[in-house]
Write a structure and sequence with these properties.
Distance between the termini: 32 Å
Number of strands: 10
CATH architecture of the largest domain: 2-Layer Sandwich
Strand content: 5-15%
Number of domains: 3
CATH class of the largest domain: Alpha Beta
Structural class: alpha/beta
């Protein structure tokens, strides 16, 4: 079995295609994972779907068959031609898959290098698969290391500071356009996590924030969570708000455009709309005088500047990713070795116990001497197995590990099950 990742992101597909691939609901995600797991070669699935990527993380006993099957199912779900998807897909297996996953978790593969949302999104996706029993030990282990890697990158670099999200990038662009933001209103549509992040950056940039959402109560609760005043307007006033507020940022989870030709008014002022939702909230066919619309892909100039400024930090981060990818596989090998070493000692204890009882029964030794003789035998076994055990642990780092483990198991009559570990619990799976 090998790790397999099918990846679609801003790197290999445009926003139109990302909209089609996006999983807008938990139900859609659930159905898709179950369909994937029907394939006999595919085991354990985590599905990550964000505004900028779809990552299908799995285990496979036949990479080619699993990859083809997954892309076929994705083509059926999205309505995108299979050949197009297959040509565009980034397919990673084993070492490459682990390195890619660690890069994604560490926000090195993001549109905005160092953005802080991705690791939380990955944890949420992992939690979902765990709750549905769509993944078990092997995926848990690699996720554990991915989160560990992300934490190390965050602690060792400054990539997590500054303008490091799509929301912050949109606000930075708006500020660059407006220049003097004092007293300038900015409309935020939506009351979810991305809207909350957007409002934080708008406030810190000096904008006066106006919030609207279909869920007015949720919008009021969000507005009340900030120390400065955030105005809340009813969603029925959207058309009016769009006509008089110069800056608008929308980030809803609607499966279709909420700003259309019908509710997008003309205006005498210059307006700048930022659509950071996928699927997009703003109809791409809207064209009005004095209106400029930016999607996530249109923020690339800021992203490129962000990348150049963070190049040295990113280099350090990639070094951590590479080291921890190697370390992960070494760790996996050590997990196979440890039970074998343990069983060698257990088998020695079993033999000591058996021979002592037999010797006492036949009168070779006195029962009063049993404990002293047992301690002596244990000392002999420990000293005898010390070097072989140490050598086995060293071998765990080498390619021939599987062969050696198999040979030791056969030589000492150990069960193959002895090398299997119980379900691994990820210690990094905590709420953000």
């Amino acid at each position: 079995m090998s790790y397999l990742i099918i990846s679609f992101s801003h790197k290999n597909i445009d926003i139109k295609m990302r909209e089609k691939l996006a999983f807008g609901s938990i139900e859609d995600k659930d159905r898709f994972i179950r369909v994937i797991l029907e394939n006999e070669y595919t085991q354990e699935v985590v599905l990550l779907s964000t505004c900028n990527r779809v990552e299908i993380i799995t285990r496979s006993s036949n990479i080619k068959v699993s990859a083809k099957n997954i892309i076929e199912k994705l083509a059926s779900y999205s309505g995108v031609d299979f050949d197009i998807l297959y040509e565009r897909a980034d397919i990673y297996d084993n070492d490459g898959a682990v390195h890619h996953l660690f890069s994604v978790a560490s926000a090195l593969d993001s549109l905005v290098i160092g953005e802080t949302q991705i690791v939380g999104q990955l944890k949420d996706s992992f939690r979902f698969s765990q709750s549905k029993n769509y993944c078990s030990t092997n995926i848990t282990r690699v996720m554990h290391y991915a989160f560990k890697c992300a934490a190390n990158v965050r602690n060792a670099t400054s990539l997590g500071t500054g303008s490091v999200s799509v929301a912050s990038t949109a606000v930075a662009k708006a500020k660059d356009i407006i220049k003097n933001t004092k007293g300038v209103k900015a409309l935020v549509i939506g009351a979810g996590e991305m809207s909350e992040l957007t409002i934080k950056h708008l406030i810190s940039s000096g904008f006066d924030v106006v919030l609207t959402s279909r869920d007015i109560k949720k919008a009021q609760n969000l507005a009340g969570s900030f120390e400065v005043h955030v105005s809340v307007e009813p969603y029925s006033e959207l058309r009016n708000l769009l006509g008089k507020i110069p800056v608008m940022i929308t980030a809803t989870s609607a499966p279709y455009p909420i700003v259309t030709k019908e509710n997008a008014p003309s205006s005498s002022i210059d307006r700048y709309w930022f659509d950071i939702a996928v699927p997009r909230d703003i109809d791409e066919d809207i064209s009005l005088s004095g209106l400029r619309i930016y999607s996530v892909d249109d923020l690339q100039d800021i992203v490129n500047e962000n990348m150049s400024l963070r190049a040295e930090q990113a280099k350090t981060a990639y070094g951590i990713v590479s080291r921890m990818s190697v370390e992960f596989f070494e760790w996996l090998k050590s997990l196979e070795i440890e039970p074998v070493v343990k069983h060698l000692y257990v088998k020695g204890e079993t033999i000591i116990d058996k021979k002592l009882k037999n010797a006492i029964k036949k009168g070779y030794i006195r029962a009063d001497d049993e404990e002293n003789i047992r301690k002596l035998c244990q000392t002999v076994i420990t000293e005898y197995l010390h070097n072989p055990s140490k050598r086995l642990k060293d071998i765990s780092k080498n390619m021939e590990c599987d062969i050696v483990v198999g040979a030791v198991q056969n030589m000492f009559g150990l069960s193959n099950d002895s090398a299997r570990s119980s379900k691994y619990k990820c210690e990094h799976l905590i709420k953000n």
